[in-house]
Amino acid sequence: MHPLHAFLLFPLLAYLGRSADGSEIINGELAPENSMLYMASVQNSKGHHCGGFLISEDFVLTAAHCDLGITHVVLGTHDLKRVNDDNKISIQEKYKHESYKNVAKGFDIMLLKLSKKVSLNGRVQTIPLPTSGMNKEDDCQVAGWGATQTHGPAVDDLTVVDVSTIKLEDCKQMWGRLPDNVICAGGYGTKKGFCQGDSGGPLVCNGKAVGVVSFNRAANCKYPDKPNVYTDVSKYLPWINGILQQERQVSCLAGIMHPLHAFLLFPLLAYLGRSADGSEIINGELAPENSMLYMASVQDSVGHLCGGFLISEDFVLTAAHCYLDITHVVLGTHDLNSVDDDNKISIKSYFRKPYENVGSGNDIMLLKLSKKVSLNGRVQTIPLPTSGMNKQDDCQVAGWGYNQTGGRAVDDLRVVDVSIINLEDCKEQWSHLGHLPANVICAGGYGTDKGFCQGDSGGPLVCNGKAVGVVSFNNGTCSYPNLPNVYTDVSKYLPWINGILQRYK
């Protein structure tokens, strides 16, 4: 605890469970049964501990300080007396923000990965997150479960109250000092707000979860003399989206892995999103702005998922394993912070060869775009090889990704030179773990500290100005890989590629 906050916040923080003093929504009312279907009761072996809210079919967002023996969440009911095996979902993994130490220092946010995807229906729904900072004049709501009085009986019905946001500068003046990235709403100057037991629940404004209940000053919850404080969700969107991306890919991979490669490829496949460990081009550099104008970021609704490359005005080539709720591609920029409607093109359809998993090969996919793009000084196609490549060529690989686990996203395109590895030598290096699939090229990784890593899948291996390979998979620590990187050999699929392009000219 920060010395300035020791008296203010301990033991008055809102993270205390239902048994804490006054742990109820202040002057609220029962939430209508058909409302707030995203609300989660985060529980331990004794029952309700904190609030939370469902942001995807298998992730609940809550407060980092709620991590105290929690084992499961309850969804689909406002009444905690109506809990059964159908609405209890165990917690598979906890992702507490790596910078969290205590609420006074901020970063009071945590993601809970559920053990299964829940069915969205008339009882359970997700809530969207903000896309940017909120309007500080918004009227909002906060909800939670709790006791009605000190040591009193538990209130098992979800209660909700309207609160108004408080200008951050005014809030800081009243508190003296606040952690970064917070929102203030309710409490001071009103008889409405949250109290102990409501931690982790959402501050909802205009239908979006903009804040996470963090702390208050609760000497008397019914008449608080300081504003209630929430973690500002908008400031943690890259961190949230990164973890969701990583886990979505890992879940998909668990179901598609070839038995011979299960040990060596999981969870090291290069298709994992930007959030995956070490997911950047290894020892590369920023790609010059006027280079690699064929590069595509293949994205889903959350953001970058894989790389790809433009081979005609309306076709992008990528890896087959990148197919996972992809919706569009981004062309014409090396900086994924500079994405607008002009360089986002939706995907009309996709084409894959018979494909099971990377271990069985055919890891190649064509994406038909919804329109032809204009070729100009920002967007160009790249030619494909006419036959097998010269195995002595020096080549390049490029991609986007994170720079470390849970770290800052690297949104600028990076590129590195790699050398081709003789295929027989590559097969020998991989042989003790399994056979390589047919129609691959090996380059980078083994014997060097350069190559690709998670998040770069689908991108091209470029030799002599032609896209000869598609990033497929790797193995080992990305900074010092002990096996060669593996690409799909484009030359082996030219009849298939050209056939589809001809059909849709």
Describe this structure in words.
- By secondary structure, the protein is mainly beta.
- It has two domains: 236 residues, Thrombin, subunit H; 244 residues, Thrombin, subunit H (Beta Barrel).
- 11% of the residues lie in helices and 32% in strands.
- The protein is built from six helices and 26 strands.
- The longest helix has 20 residues.
Task: Please summarize what this structure is.
The protein is built from six helices and 26 strands.
List the helices and strands and how they pair.
Elements: H1 3-9, E1 29-30, E2 39-44, E3 47-56, E4 59-62, E5 72-74, E6 88-96, E7 110-114, E8 139-147, E9 154-166, H2 168-175, E10 182-185, E11 202-205, E12 208-215, E13 229-232, H3 237-256, H4 262-265, E14 285-286, E15 295-299, E16 304-312, E17 315-318, E18 328-330, E19 344-352, E20 365-369, E21 394-402, E22 409-421, H5 423-430, E23 440-443, E24 460-463, E25 466-473, E26 486-489, H6 494-503
